[in-house]
Amino acid sequence: MRIERVELRQVRLPYVAPFETSGWREETCHAIIVRLEADGVTAWGESPVGENPFYNEENYQTAWIIQQAYLTPMLMAADLSKPQEVTPAFARVRANRMAKSGLEFATWDLFGRRDGRSLAAMLGGTRDRVAVGVSVGIQKDIDTLLRVVGDYINAGYNRIKLKIRPGWDIEPTRAVRTAWPDIQLQVDANSIYHLEDAERLAQLDQFNLLLVEQPLGHDDIFDHAKLQPRLRTPICLDESIVSPEHARWAIEMHACGVINIKPSRIGGLADSVRVHDMAQAAGMPVWHGGMLETGIGRAANVALASLPNFKLPGDISANARYYARDIVRNPFTLNADSTLTVPTKPGSGVIVDEDVLDDVTVARWEKRA
Ligand code: OSB
Ligand code: MG
Question: Which residues participate in catalysis according to the annotation?
Fold first, then answer.
C-alpha cells in the first residue's frame, strides 16, 4: 500500500486541570494529530508531544519539523505490505520517537480499517477490558490532594498514582495511604532523584506501593540497578525505556521489577509489542503509561493494553478525566470495575469529531503523493 496523503495538525486542547510533575506544569495539550489517506480509507494517529521538552527531548515544535522534513517523505516512499514496516523505514532518523509514533500508529489504523480488523486483534490483544487508574499531579497542599484523590476514587478508579518530588513525597504518600489503606497506590518521580537519595526513597517502602516509577535520571539504567536492591518496592522504568534494546539492558541488569510501556516514547506500537514480549519472556510484568493523549491516542493505548503481559492498571483514564471537549465522538467511559472496554471496530475504532478538531487546530500541513 502507498500512502496518498498525509495531513498533520497541531492542536491545542485545554486540560480539565493543570498537570504538574517534578519537572514541569502544563495546562494545554499540544499534540500533533496525523491523518493518512490511502485506498479510499482515512486513518488517524497522534504524537502526544508536550509544550516543552521536559519529559523527553521532544516537543510539538521538534516533532512538527521532523515529521515534515523526514518522516512523511520516508513514509510516502515506502510500499507497505504491513504496519511493522514503518519502524524500519524510519530507522535512519535517530530518536524523535514521539514524532515517529503518530505516523506509525496511523498506519496501523489504516491497515486495520482497510482490512476490517481491530487494532487490539492486530496487536495480539487477549482481553476485552483493561484495568485503569489515574495519575494525580502535584497539588498545592495535602488537603487539596486528598480531595482530588477522593473525587477520582468516588468516580470509580481503584488505582492511584501520585506524582512526587523532594518535599512532596513521603508526607503526601502517607496521607493518601492513611486515608485509603486498601487502594492500589504507586508513585512517579519523573527522574528528579539521585542515587544519594536512596535512603529517602526507601522510606516509601512503608506504604505498600505497587511500584516507584523512574526515580533517577531520564536516561539512566545503571544507577537504577544499584538503587533497586536498596528498595523493597519494585522500581518501574518509564523515561529510560525507549527501545527494545533498552528494555533488554534493564532486564539483564535487574534495574527494575516492572516496565511502563508508552508506545509514543518507544516510537510506535510494533516496538512496544517487542518490549511487551521480551518482558513477558523474562517474567517481568508491564503496564501501560499515558501522555494525557486525546481520544485518538487513547484508543491505541487501550488496544495495546489488552495484551496479556499488561498485568497492572494503566494510566489510561476515561477521556473526561483530561478534556471537557475531546476530538472524538466515542470517548471511553469508566466501567464499574475500574476498566475501559477495548474497541472492536476496525482499526483503533475512533470516530473523530472533525468539527471539534477544526476548532482546536492551530496549524495544518499536508503532502500528497
Ligand atoms: O511520567 O507517566 C508520566 C503525563 C505526561 C508525561 C509523563 C507522564 C504523564 C502521566 C500522565 O503520568 C498519565 C496519563 O494519565 O496520561
Ligand atoms: Mg512516568
Answer: 163, 262
For the chain, list the domains and their CATH numbers. Answer: 5-116+353-368 (3.30.390.10), 121-341 (3.20.20.120)
C-beta of 135 in contact with ligand 1 (< 6 A): yes
* Residue pointed to by grid coordinates 520516508: 74
pTM score: 0.98
Compute the residue count for the chain. 369
Distances (CA, A) of 244 to 134, 176, 247, 350, 361: 26, 35, 5, 28, 34
Kindly report, residue by residue over 239-249, the tens digit of the pLDDT: 999 999 999 99
- Summarize pLDDT for 270-301 with one digit per residue, the tens: 999 999 999 999 999 999 999 999 999 999 99
Q: How far is the CA of 102 from the centre of ligand 1 (A)?
A: 17
Q: How far apart, in whole angstroms, are the C-alpha atoms of residue 174 and residue 172? A: 5
Residue whose CA is at the smallest distance from ligand 1 atom 13 = 290
DSSP 327-358: SBSS-----TTSEEEPP-SSBT---B-HHHHH
**How many angstroms separate the CA atoms of 167 and 253, rounded?**
30
Tens digit of pLDDT for each residue in 126-151? 999 999 999 999 999 999 999 999 99
The kind and range of the H/E element at 159 are strand 159-163
Name every residue whose Cβ is closer than 8 Å to that of residue 178 and which is 6 or more positions away in sequence: none
Q: How much distance in Å is there from the Cα of 338 to the middle of ligand 1?
A: 18
Nine cell digits for residue 5: 496523503
| H or E, element range at 226 | helix 222-227
